[in-house]
Amino acid sequence: MATRRTGDDAPDFRAASHTGQVVHLSDYRGRTVVLFFYPRDESPVCTKEVCAFRDAYEEFVRAGAVVIGVSSDSVDSHQQFARQHRLPFVLISDSGGEIRSDYGIRRTFGLLPGRTTFVIDREGTIRHVFSGQFVANRHVEEAMGMVHRLAAESAPSDDE
């Protein structure tokens, strides 16, 4: 499957989260979703990326966005990772790689699970895609820029 692109419908999924709840993307219809895929809990670059999303979390929330992290790690691994780094957003386990496959995320160098961030609008359409294996902070910057643009698009104008 080719990587999902801007303008594509975001594939729905059903996955276990570190909080014990089952998460469906469709649960967030009507809200902007930042869905970021990262290779592995506790690796240096992944930890940097996840903590960057944590540090920007309140700004994402103020702009009306939900943040969801996805890796193939187990729910137990996610629980420990979230607790250790005080993560305020949901981490979901894609242990079989189905979600990653549905989004068309390829491995880097044929080895590492890809690092890709999607911003999905209120209607479930992918509005922004950013991939970059070794530029963790840029994922947050890219996502934040699009989240702010979407918030501005949905803000009522002075004429209304």
From TrEMBL:
Domain Thioredoxin, first and last residues per copy: 4-152
Annotated active site: 46
Classification via PROSITE patterns: THIOREDOXIN_2 (PS51352)
EC number: 1.11.1.24
One Pfam family of this chain: AhpC-TSA
Keywords attached to this entry: Antioxidant, Disulfide bond, Oxidoreductase, Peroxidase, Redox-active center, Thylakoid, Transit peptide
Keyword Transport: no
Location of the protein in the cell: Thylakoid
Cellular component, GO annotation: cytoplasm; thylakoid
Subunit structure, interactors included: Monomer.
Family label: Belongs to the peroxiredoxin family. BCP/PrxQ subfamily.
Function: Thiol-specific peroxidase that catalyzes the reduction of hydrogen peroxide and organic hydroperoxides to water and alcohols, respectively. Plays a role in cell protection against oxidative stress by detoxifying peroxides and as sensor of hydrogen peroxide-mediated signaling events.
Protein name as annotated: thioredoxin-dependent peroxiredoxin
Organism listed in the record: Maioricimonas rarisocia
Chain's gene name: bcp_5
